[in-house]
Amino acid sequence: MRPSLEELEAFLHVAETGSFTKAAQRLGISKSVISRRVSGLERRLGALLVSRTTHAVTLTELGAGFHERARRSLEDLDEAVEAVGLGAKAIRGLVRITAPTNLGTLHVLPAVTQLMALHEALEIDLDLNDRYVDITLGGFDLAIRIGDPKDSVLVSRKLGRIGRAVVGSPGYLSEKGMPVVPEDLERHECLTYANMNPAEQWRFLVRGEWRTIRTRGRLKTNDGSALLAAAIAGRGLVGLPRFITDEAVAAGRLVRVLEDFPLPEVGLFALFPSSARLPGRARAVLEHLAGYFERVLRV
After folding, report:
1. What digits encode the pLDDT tens for the residues 260-279?
2. How far apart are CA 188 and CA 176, in angstroms?
3. DSSP type of residue 163
4. pTM for this one?
């Protein structure tokens, strides 16, 4: 006999939280109900899936294998239901997102407000923060991050790649001269973007090989908008993501330099907890963001 969806859902939450109590809190039901559902699932399958002790709840070998297959199956079912549901009704409810400050201001915020204009019942809680945020502990549905994911427990979806450019104001370049090769930066005032690591070492592709240039400068900050303003004011050259500099370049307030020597691109990813299947409303926001970045962001 096939297990019920309630039994599968209870087992998945127990497996992913390592606790009957936490699983019950997530689902808003009692611990005893969770326990009965998991026990019922084990009876149907004729196998012990969960090892229960006074100190911990762990998966058996059979339970670990079943967990992965059950998770994928329910995700597929959710996607099928959501594909029909989202086409037939409005997106409603709260979606919590964390994103880097500049990317969030320039792109994530405009993207989600576009979607909110189409769905009046959709609510967005957008946390803009350049520091690492534990999205599971923070209760976020999605994290938008620049750079390859380092969280092995999170599911990631690649949204594209972000290019970077070195820029300076026309006034600064007129006074200090235009750099022709990356080594020329050693004689320039370089504004340091603390979010890049190592911040003072800029890498360029030179004749097919990556070359590291150690720069010098008196201003260092983790805020791209502040560095953008400093560069426009003629305080030096800066290497920033193109999504921060492109508008100023188009307006003639900044000029790209060393365009024959590309800087490394970085990946743009959406991440969400593997410990819970993405709610339909969050999945809809993710799909909208993916489409937005494909159209708008130069990656």
Report:
1. 999 999 899 999 986 556 78
2. 7
3. -
4. 0.67
